[in-house]
Amino acid sequence: MTHEELSGMITRATSHVFSTMLGINLEVGRSYVDDSAPSPAEGVVALIGLAGTWAGSGTVACSAGMARHVSGRLLMQEFTHVDEEVLDAMGEVCNMILGNVKTMLEEHLGPMGLSIPTVIYGRNFTTRSAAKSQWSIVPFHCAGETLEVHLCLVPGRETILTNRHPAVLSLNNS
């Protein structure tokens, strides 16, 4: 999968979830690639794992203010601080976005599993993935805030060992 393909899937999935489930139109920022997981952060990060012939991690990261705004739209109430409901709502938003991305990926990579989301809230924390691969990152803007969706995807161990997956074969033939 190329960065352009992944960022296109992320953009379609995120825009769809925000417009249909939250009634929020997002401005899509310029996607980019980073060689490391999201750096030290402050705010809310929801993480989800993907598994199959390809495996990886996806995150939805934003400020506490954006998390309260998104959660308020999803749950139709106002939040003055980040609490369990906000964290649960952000986990659900992450699940919807990356679940849609997973469905798109399955058309190219075969069946995949999706873990339950883990949500972290705090100040000056770092997330890390054991995968030594590139992350496709797509920023979205709304109401003066930014929400980023990150996705790291690598061939699974069996795929690497057998080189049977068409995407790995095309990489090997490049």
Q: Report the radius of gyration as a whole number of Å.
A: 16 Å
The structural class is alpha+beta
Assembly type of the shown chains? Answer: single chain
**CATH architectural group:** 3-Layer(aba) Sandwich
Beta strand count: 8
Overall average pLDDT: 87
The helix-strand sequence is HEEEEHHEEEEHH
Low-pLDDT parts are 168-174
How many domains comprise the coordinates?
A: 1
CATH class: Alpha Beta
The CATH superfamily title: CheC-like
Number of helices: 5
Apparent shape: globular
How big a fraction of the residues is strand? 25-35%
Major pleated sheet: 8 strands, antiparallel
Brief account:
The protein has five helices and eight strands. The protein has 174 residues and is an alpha+beta fold. It is globular, with a radius of gyration of 16 Å.
Descriptive notes:
This protein has 174 residues and is α+β, with helices and mostly antiparallel strands. The protein has a single domain, classed as CheC-like (Chemotaxis protein chec, 3-Layer(aba) Sandwich), CATH 3.40.1550. Strands 1, 2, 3, 4, 5, 6, 7 and 8 form an 8-stranded antiparallel beta sheet that branches. Strand 7 and strand 8 form a beta hairpin. Helix 1 packs across helix 3 and helix 2 crosses helix 3. The longest helix has 26 residues. It is globular, with a radius of gyration of 16 Å. The two termini are 13 Å apart.
